[in-house]
Write a structure and sequence with these properties.
CATH superfamily of one domain: Ubiquitin Conjugating Enzyme
Helix content: 25-40%
Distance between the termini: 82 Å
Strand order of the largest sheet: 1-2-3-4
Structural class: alpha+beta
Order of helices and strands: HEEEEHHHEEH
Length: 176
C-alpha cells in the first residue's frame, strides 16, 4: 500500500469513529484537531495532528499552538507533545491518529497535573488570573446607584408593573 492509500483509509476510519463527536474537527483531509476534556473544563486542551506527505512511514506533526490552549503553560504543552512523540515512535509505520487521541484522553490527568487552574475574571475591562482558593484583594464591590423617593416614583410612573417601559416610549414623532 502507498502512503496515500493508507491516509485515505485512515481518513475514512477517523470520520466513521468520530462522526457526531463535537470534540473532533477535520481541518483538512490531512489535518485534525481533538479536544481532550469537556467544554468549560479548566484542564481541557486541544491537540492538532497534521500528516506529512509520507505519513504513516514518517511521524505526523503534533501541535498544541491552538488559541484554545493559550492558558496552558508552554512547559506543559511541550511535555504533552514530547509524550505523544514517544507514542508516535512506538507506532511508526501504522495508522496512529486515533491511537494518539485515545492516548491523550487516557493520560489527560497526568499530562495536566502540574497545570494551575486559572479563573478568568473581568474587573473594569482588564483580565486578571488568580487561583480559585484565594480571592484578589484589589477587587472592590460595585456600589449600586441610590435613587431618591421622587426619582423612584418618576421611574415607576413611566414603567408598567414589571418595571418595563411601554412600547414606543422612545419613538420620535415624524409627522407634525
Amino acid at each position: 500500500m502507498t502512503a496515500n492509500e493508507d491516509q485515505e483509509m485512515e481518513l475514512e476510519v477517523l470520520r466513521s469513529i468520530y462522526e457526531g463527536d463535537e470534540r473532533f474537527k477535520e481541518l483538512s483531509p490531512v489535518s485534525f484537531q481533538y479536544r481532550i476534556g469537556e467544554n468549560g473544563d479548566p484542564k481541557a486542551f486541544l491537540i492538532e495532528i497534521t500528516w506529512p506527505e509520507t505519513y504513516p512511514q514518517t511521524a505526523p506533526v503534533i501541535s498544541m499552538n491552538a488559541f484554545f490552549n493559550n492558558t496552558i503553560s508552554s512547559a506543559i504543552k511541550q511535555s504533552i507533545v514530547d509524550k505523544l512523540i514517544d507514542e508516535v515512535e512506538v507506532n511508526l509505520g501504522t495508522s496512529m491518529t486515533y491511537t494518539l487521541f485515545e492516548y491523550a484522553k487516557d493520560h489527560k490527568e497526568s499530562f495536566m497535573e502540574n497545570q494551575p487552574v486559572n479563573i478568568m475574571t473581568s474587573v473594569n475591562n482588564s483580565i486578571s488570573t488568580g487561583t480559585p482558593d484565594t480571592a484578589p484583594s484589589s477587587k472592590k464591590k460595585e456600589k449600586k446607584e441610590q435613587l431618591t423617593k421622587t426619582q423612584k416614583r418618576k421611574l415607576a410612573d413611566k414603567t408598567d408593573h414589571k418595571g418595563e417601559l411601554p412600547r414606543g416610549w422612545n419613538w420620535v414623532d415624524v409627522i407634525k
